[in-house]
Amino acid sequence: MFTTSNLLIGLVAALIIGLSKTAVPGGGLLATPLFAMVVSGRLIAGVMLPVLIVADLFAIGWYRGSRRADVLRPLVLPVAVGFAAGTLFYAIVGSGGRVLDVCIGLIVMVMVALQVSRLVRRTPPADATPLVTNVVGVTGGFTTFVANAAGPVLNTYFTGLGLPKEPLIGTSSVFYFCVNLAKVPVYLLLGWLATGGAFFTAESLRYDAVLLPAVVVGVFGGRWLLPRIPQRVFSMGVLVLAFLAAVKLLVGR
Known about the structure:
This protein is mostly helical. It has helices at residues 4-22, 31-35, 42-62, 69-72, 76-92, 97-120, 130-146, 150-160, 165-193, 202-225, 231-251. The longest helix is centred in the C-terminal third of the chain and has 29 residues, at 165-193.
């Protein structure tokens, strides 16, 4: 794991995650295939998780005044339901398979198409219906475990609500931090009780420690960049990244 090439790949992935948490929501999807070049199986998620949590902490601290609790509250219960279902599914089945990837990809595609249409026609944002909120919450909680696709779903949802840059970053950072923190005990239990190997090892945690400087550079770079991105460019960028994530799910990993 500690070869020169693996360290360089990990540093780039950590830098991308840092940027994604403070300026480019959805950009972190590029980090997964990079980490997959270094480790395999459950260790991919296990290596990424500490990096994500550290980056989340910076975003929460910097944008705490911009978070929208009113947007998060309706998501709590459906996300918890989806999270529990995803954990159970992960423990029993192990992975979602191609059918699930395609279904999630199509859902994201539809959401992106609707939001792009709204932006192009300059339709004013509207509050989500309870049905949409519940579907997004359950899907986001479920996919964060079985397909690592919660980002495109939630980011597209927040964009549809018309959240400006800082509130979107601040609100999403709280969501992702809570979800990622909740994964830690679940990953440990799955590693001990279910077949498939551990998510965390002593070597993977040492590797994460080496990557922390790149995370810090990424989050500070994102903090510098965010005020310099026009709001419309930011919104379209979030949707483009969600679209790319959907394409990735549809064509295979």
